[in-house]
Amino acid sequence: MLLIEDKQIVVPGEILAEGDFHSGRGTFKDADKVCSSLVGLVAVRDKKISVIPLQSKYIPKRGDVVIGKISDIRFSMWNLDINSPYSGILPAAEVFGKEKRELNRAFDVGDVLFLRVVDVDEVKKVKLGLKGRGLGKFRGGILIHITPTKVPRLIGKKGSMINMIKDQTKCEVVVGQNGVVWVKGKPEMERIVQKVIKTIEEEAHTSGLTDRIKNMLFELLGEKTEKTEKTNKEEDFEEELIQ
User: pLDDT tens for residues 98-115?
Assistant: First the structure.
């Protein structure tokens, strides 16, 4: 018997189902009962029950694309903060090949890069690389941090949500699977994107989110347009007075 609903928020120890159900991620079995092991959202798939954590740190996986900030430079590598309990390393060989060059001439502390996870070993040493379309150093823009488990909701089905945000604000938006988002556009549009993304993060578990975000963008951009038109009219009026 299922005792909860799909997408319901549950707490550790809460009984989710009894009888013929399987324990998935974020749950454990106690006799014939499936219980939650954390605070999160229930996901029911056939007879399998999982709980997706509301708050979590990014656990690197090979093949992931991530956004990282250089925190340190060593003899043959850069260390990067990738919003994870585990720091990433970018070996010099991934950038220069066999050529010997000064590392800080390519990237310096504080630089933000878009990278791919090349490998994760048994002690969670995360090797990063820059080979791939669109990977490399970001210039300008702002960074927004969200809970990594909310990334799929931000992207949307077949990219619907993120594409809507980009189309409406005319901003460049790059989403890392580690929950770091890079945004570049007009300063006022960057602020709108930040507000929208934070709303998506907070309301990711609710239904009808796409329509609410569409309306939110319409309202925010509508206000912006009205202010711009008003400013333009005021400037025109001032020019007439001057003349």
Answer: 666 778 788 999 999 999
Tell me how far CA of residue 89 lies from CA of 63, 68, 77, 116, 214, in angstroms.
15, 10, 6, 11, 39
**Long-range contacts, 35-40 (Cβ 8 Å, 24+):** 36/10, 36/11, 36/12, 37/12, 38/12, 39/9, 39/10, 39/11, 39/12, 40/9, 40/10
Residue 29 forms part of a structural domain: yes
What's the one-letter identity of residue 243?
Q
Helix axes 209-242, 187-202, angle to 10 degrees: 160
Here the CATH number for the domain that contains residue 35 is 2.40.50.100
Q: Domain count of the chain?
A: 3
Output the pTM of the full model.
0.72
pLDDT greater than 80 at residue 197: yes
* Per-residue pLDDT tens digits for 3-50: 998 878 899 999 999 999 999 989 999 999 999 998 888 989 889 999
Q: What is the extent of the structural domain holding 70?
A: 65-137
Q: CB of 53 within 8 A of CB of 205?
A: no
